[in-house]
Amino acid sequence: MNSSHFTSGMDEHAVVITQVAERQWHAVEDDRTVGRGDASRRPDGRMFLSIDSWHAAVFDQLADAMLADLPKPLYTVVDEADLDLTSDWERAGFTTRRREWEYLVPTDPRVTGLGAVLPPSGVTIVAVGEAEESPLRKLDREIRDEVEASVGWQEMPAEVLPRPDGATVLDPSKYAVAAQSDEYVGLVRVAPVTRQPRIGLIAVRSDQHRRGIARALLAHVLGSLHRCGIETASAEVNESNGAAMALFEGVGARRASSNLELVLR
């Protein structure tokens, strides 16, 4: 267990930074815990940090101790509206890697305009939880390879980033798919979060683009949620993904907030 001593700028009391566990740090002043720092490794292997402190000086001291012990690159996520926290991380050397908009998506077809939307000829929608695992994983690999060849799969939402073993479909029951003949050509991931399900990913194989498959998948999922009495779903979209932003905004989704992913390389 490692400890470091600092003197705060507000008074002359020593702040003691102690690593209390492998990835946890505490800041203590006069027997009071005045800050905590945590590091957690996400399924894709990246290390994300969080710091909760009373004062900016304590934040800086915790950050210094953590950065000295952890290998780079390091990441954190902040609410863009929290200017103080964003500034704290920037002082520690972090820079913005990407911005994600959080959308609130209505489910009522009278609002979305999706009530009459049907899949294109020859395509059927397989409901959430009914997709076969083997062809779902095959489609996931195909789409992932296509994304890797363009913007890179690391730009996808955190919940669909690959684990160290390469798996991205961790729970097939969360997916609805578009099927054509004997193969799957599109998918949508829905996390059943209480009261406001989360649409984590909509993707269509590149040779099936511009046929309306993504819109049909969204119509199916939102319609199903509406029939269950759920009024809105949430979705996070990378601001660089213009097609996804247009898809959601075209059905009446509104931006509720934005998050910044910061990185220290």
Automatic annotation (TrEMBL):
CDD domains in the record: NAT_SF
Transmembrane segments: none
Pfam families the record matches: Acetyltransf_10
Molecular functions (GO terms): acyltransferase activity, transferring groups other than amino-acyl groups
Protein name: Ribosomal-protein-alanine N-acetyltransferase
Organism: Planotetraspora mira
UniProt cross-references to PROSITE patterns, sorted A to Z: GNAT
Domain N-acetyltransferase: 123-265
